[in-house]
Amino acid sequence: MPASYAYLGPEGTFTEVALRTLPEAATRELVPMLSVPAALDAVRGGEAEAAFVPIENSVEGGITTTLDELVAGRPLMIYREVLLDITFALLVRPGTKLDGIKTVTAHPAAQPQVRNWIKAHLPDVTWESSASNADGARLVREGRYDAAFAGEFAAARYGLEPLVTEIHDAENAQTRFVLVGRPARPAAPTGADKTSVVIWQREDHPGALMELLQQFAIRGVNLMLLQSRPTGKGIGDYCFAIDAEGHISDRRVAEALMGLKRACPEVRYLGSYPRAGVAVEDVRPLRTGTSDGEFVTASDWLARCQDGRF
Hints:
The protein is α/β, with parallel strands linked by helices and 310 residues long. 27% of the residues lie in helices and 30% in strands. It has nine helices and 15 strands.
């Protein structure tokens, strides 16, 4: 595989900033792509070793383009995640004043994070989405729009000025990014891990989703994300993206996944990987009866009963 990482570009995106926090990024060629699908397809096609893309933000939740690309197509696997604090700057061509701004642009995920600021300061502005925040900055440089919401660090790269900085509707807003590669053996557990899967219901009936979620609950596995996505087969037909605490090698997680596989027509495993910003000592204690040792003890007891040695 090429020693390169594809990422949502062009240069100057929050995605690039987050990617450069990974130590291994210093030893890879970083290749900007025009969209999330293009970055993931580069991995599927063997043109890149991995892709780095946004998957969730703390204001609007899941990035649907990324989730849908991971749900469909040839399987890919998440290996790492990065959390990045997000604040925007309003980037303009030199000389532009606030009262001269009639059109603005940015990635669609940015709009919910600056909506109230726009309402207060640019109530009559026209918004149009761009492929990424940095691409919006490029379009402003070319004269297509008056201003773009992007990282302040992108201003110099595109010959723009930050007219206003520190723009955010929600304090402490963050975006989660993931490093995605082709399927392989998961890394060894760290004790502070996350497992991601997508599940499809066999049929829709009262309590159907609860029955699937009980596979986690009865084994003491905490869920960190549950998001429905349409399958495209018709209104009301959904699959569910799930992030769960723990690693696939943990007995409680492994047995929950086996239970899902028995109950669901399809389960797509998206990987087990270290949780960003969480130390082992910060992980909540396991509920009684859900540790690996207790699962082994129960399995041994069952074997003795089957052998008549109880």
